[in-house]
UniProtKB/TrEMBL annotation:
Molecular function GO terms recorded: oxidoreductase activity
Alphabetically ordered keywords of this record: Oxidoreductase
Record's protein name: NAD(P)-dependent dehydrogenase (Short-subunit alcohol dehydrogenase family)
Family: Belongs to the short-chain dehydrogenases/reductases (SDR) family.
Taxonomic lineage from the root: Bacteria, Bacillati, Actinomycetota, Actinomycetes, Streptosporangiales
Domain of life of the organism encoding this protein: Bacteria
InterPro entries cross-referenced by the UniProt entry: NAD(P)-bd_dom_sf (IPR036291), SDR_fam (IPR002347)
The species this protein was found in: Allonocardiopsis opalescens
Length: 246
């Protein structure tokens, strides 16, 4: 029997990149999987088809993370549709690299809504559905450990908030049998951070392995945390960053 057989999972921002890989690997491990997306309905539909190819139930739900209430409503919708919720993966996120003076108030508000408020709202909504064995895994960033270049103040601020949120969730939900952890990816080849982009060589040089990681590299750790192997890991921050934070 696959390790997550009979479990139901929700991955925010699951239409592309890391979230799509996490959704597919959770299905491979036996879970029914829902993904949210903002505008990539077609891509989300393809991920849902791939989930179904493992014989699992799939759902694709539009929920813009800039609207945290919509994300919380998506959590309730998915729990009702699957009849349960066991795993929440807070993955949807935005990046912004710009000098301090060029960061607008509207940028701050959007970044805090998408990268901070939405994961909080989703976690709070999920906590009402998760039972013993429940899991919350949040995608942070290696920038929460090491800010190795200028222009990342706002993004690092938002991702470091996930460390505190995770510890708070671990403390609050541990007695209910629910774990909460944050995974900090390094440079991962996605639309957000393509391995052939202008900053790619520089980022390779920051790692000790000298290369980018893949979405599956991050997904493997998320699936481990979501599965039986994660049962005694909570409140932890786990780097999947090729040694960037070393
Ligand atoms: P991508 O840009 O490749 O994919 C982003 C995914 O999130 C898409 O499915 C997108 O949906 C969805 N999404 C984006 N904004 C919103 C929103 N407002 N509401 C709902 N869904 C949204 O990103 P990555 O896969 O690279 O990043 C995933 C996470 O990993 C993010 O939290 C990011 O900060 C983090 N991360 C990434 C790193 C990297 O090097 N790639 C490094 C460290 C952290 P749609 O298709 O609809 O736009």
């Amino acid at each position: 029997v696959p390790p997550l057989y009979g479990r139901a999972a929700l991955v925010t921002g699951g239409s592309r990149g890391i979230g799509a890989a996490v959704a597919v690997r959770l299905a491979e491990a036996g879970a029914d999987v829902a993904v949210t997306y903002r505008e990539g309905a077609e891509a989300a539909g393809r991920v849902a088809k791939e989930v179904e190819s493992y014989g699992r139930r799939a759902l694709a739900v539009r929920a813009d993370a800039a609207d945290p209430q919509a994300v919380a409503a998506a959590v309730d919708h998915v729990a009702a549709a699957f009849g349960r919720l066991d795993v929440l993966v807070n993955n949807a996120g935005m990046g912004l690299i710009a000098p301090l003076d060029q960061v607008l108030t509207a940028d701050v508000e959007r970044m805090l809504a998408v990268n901070v408020h939405a994961p909080f709202a989703a976690s709070r909504a999920a906590a009402r559905h998760l039972g013993v064995g429940g899991r919350i895994v949040t995608i942070g960033s290696c920038l929460a450990d090491r800010v190795a270049f200028p222009g990342a103040t706002l993004y690092a601020l938002s991702k470091t908030a996930m460390v505190g949120m995770t510890k708070g969730l671990a403390r609050e939900l541990g007695p209910l049998g629910v774990t909460a952890n944050v995974v900090h990816p390094g440079p991962i080849d996605t639309d957000m951070n393509p391995a052939d982009g202008p900053g790619a060589e520089f980022q390779r040089g920051l790692t000790v392995m000298g290369r980018y990681g893949t979405p599956d590299d991050v997904a493997a750790t998320v699936v481990h945390l979501a599965g039986p192997g994660g049962r005694y890991i909570t409140g932890a921050a786990i780097a999947v960053d090729g040694g960037l934070a070393v």
